[in-house]
Design brief:
- This protein is an alpha/beta fold and 318 residues long.
- The chain has a single domain, classed as Metallo-beta-lactamase, Chain A (4-Layer Sandwich), CATH 3.60.15.
- Helices cover 22% and strands 27% of the residues.
- Helix 1 runs parallel beside helix 8.
- The longest helix is centred in the C-terminal third of the chain and has 18 residues.
- It is globular, with a radius of gyration of 18 Å.
- The two termini are 36 Å apart.
């Protein structure tokens, strides 16, 4: 993706304004202890539970995390902690119980049923050669939903591990009836890259390019988190007093990115801006106790950000 150069002042003000709702004290979290029945319409038989489907609720909304696969990157100082001495990175990983030779990232999507809408947040990596992925279609069906039943797809950003599952090997859309929502700056950047020509052709008729920070559909508001790509968005999903914040690539690794938000990540288009965005989002999430859904944290990637010893830690929901 192309780099861009917004000022930190604009970044901080915009992020604070859009995330102001997250400052409310201790809202009811998304619960995981009472899974709903499989998501199925009258013409779709409920599927049996699957290890790749983690069901939960956001208020009264049925939701599920869908496993797509995994990404493994070397801990070589060139990816998630660029230029940081390896012993420092190793110490963070070891304390988190992680290996120090390879950094493991999950790839997962979020499914939410809201009234007549079936919402899907990101679409995984598809058959990308950099990931052991491509399980999303099977996970979706295991949750009782056919691709044609998805009405709305929310793209955090257009990196291939988030849009790879939009099309099949022939370049045809896999979600024929879904509107594809992404921010206008992100869509503009996607169209400007010749490598994206096939993707653009497949999804253009169904794209909704929204203004950053917009309420995209009732109950789903985009949260600009700048620096990763030109129009990267998190999404806040609200039902009554219950909220869930889907963070996209605001943070990649549950230990490295959370405990050391100022360490440079090679995937960020504008690293200084992304680092400021990451720290601001983690602070807001910690102070509001909002439930987080992360597509790259260990499956199912549901939990909270907690302040500890001058930094942050990831507290997964049990």
């Amino acid at each position: 993706m192309r780099r861009f150069d917004p000022t930190r002042a604009v970044l901080t003000l915009a992020l604070a304004a859009v995330l102001a709702a997250c400052a409310d004290p201790a809202p009811p979290p998304a619960t995981v202890d009472a899974p709903p029945p499989p998501m199925a319409t009258a013409d779709t038989a409920p599927a049996s539970d699957s290890a790749d489907v983690h069901r939960f609720r956001i208020g009264s909304l049925d939701a599920a995390v869908l496993r797509d696969g995994d990404i493994h990157v070397p801990n070589d100082g060139k990816t998630l902690a660029v230029g940081i001495p390896k012993p420092e990175v190793d110490a963070v990983l070891t304390q988190a119980g992680e290996p120090t030779d390879t950094v493991h990232l999950g790839v997962q999507a979020l499914l939410v049923r809201s009234g007549d809408r079936v919402l899907l947040f990101d679409t995984g990596a598809g058959d990308a050669d950099f990931a052991d992925a491509g399980r999303l279609p099977a996970s979706l069906r295991a949750a009782g939903v056919e691709p044609a039943q998805v009405t709305d797809i929310f793209i955090s950003h257009a990196h291939p591990d988030h849009v790879g599952g939009l099309t099949d090997a022939a370049g045809q859309t896999l979600f024929a009836n879904a509107s594809v929502h992404l921010s206008a700056p992100e869509w503009q950047a996607v169209q400007a890259e010749s490598a994206n020509a096939a993707l653009v052709a497949a999804i253009s008729p169904r794209v909704d390019a929204f203004a950053p920070g917009a309420e995209v559909v009732p109950g789903v508001t985009a949260i600009p988190v700048e620096g990763h790509t030109p129009g990267h968005s998190a999404y806040e999903i609200v039902d009554g007093d219950a909220r869930l914040l889907y963070i996209g690539d605001a943070a990649h690794h549950f230990a490295v990115s959370v405990q050391r938000p100022q360490w440079t990540i090679a995937f960020d288009g504008d690293a200084p801006v992304a680092e400021a965005s990451r720290e601001a989002l983690l602070a807001r999430a910690a102070d509001s106790a909002v439930t987080i859904a992360s597509p790259h944290f260990p499956y199912p990637g549901l939990g909270r950000i907690v302040r500890r010893e001058g930094s942050f830690v990831w507290a997964p929901l049990q």
